Amino acid sequence: MVSLMNHAHRSFGDDPGLVGRLGAAVIRGLQEGGVAACAKHFPGHGDTDVDSHLDLPAVDHPRPRLDEVELPPFRAAIEAGVASIMTAHVLVRDLDDSLPATLSPRVVGGLLRKEMKYDGVIVSDDLEMKAVAAHWGVGPAAVKAAQAGCDLLPVCASTEAQVEAIESVIRALEAESLSWSAMDDACARIRRLKEKYLMPYRPPDPRAARAAAGSAGRADFSREIMDRAGMTA
Prior knowledge:
By secondary structure, the protein is mainly alpha-helical. The protein contains 10 helices and 5 strands.
């Protein structure tokens, strides 16, 4: 995780430079081992006092502060070649005073894609979270996220909500309020990620996975990481 979060167990710290360096190291380590990394939550979720699972948080910092604190870890992640970046369901008023980052063309297409020149996969946060679902609805939020420039639109719990999101995107394409060329570009980015990290595809072996996850060596290594990081189980 590369974002500045105000929860100790979800952050490398409160120093943007340190977060950027450690985040980049994790990204390189994961991706050299064949695991696609994701930096989140863009453009920053650290300085909020509302849980976006429950309602829409807002950030009132001016752009110079964002450039100094919130954005440097993401710039470091991009320089490290991070495979994907997840957006935040956060209203950053100095970037867009009406739409949260996930749904904002200014934030996703403008800041992340054009200004910061990120060409990897952009993933929205879960569209069933109340920060967006309670204000826009899952279907309209899926369309707005796609219009903003998100490539992947997770809807993580309800089958009915998943169907609503899919049908809303299809209707938007048919009505030409969503661009087919933009969807083709999104599919191409996702395909490149899959080709890099999933090919050649091998079906998972649940028995081998359980054996590896429960091995004494891995458990000892996990405890060592936690001890050295000052964490507790």
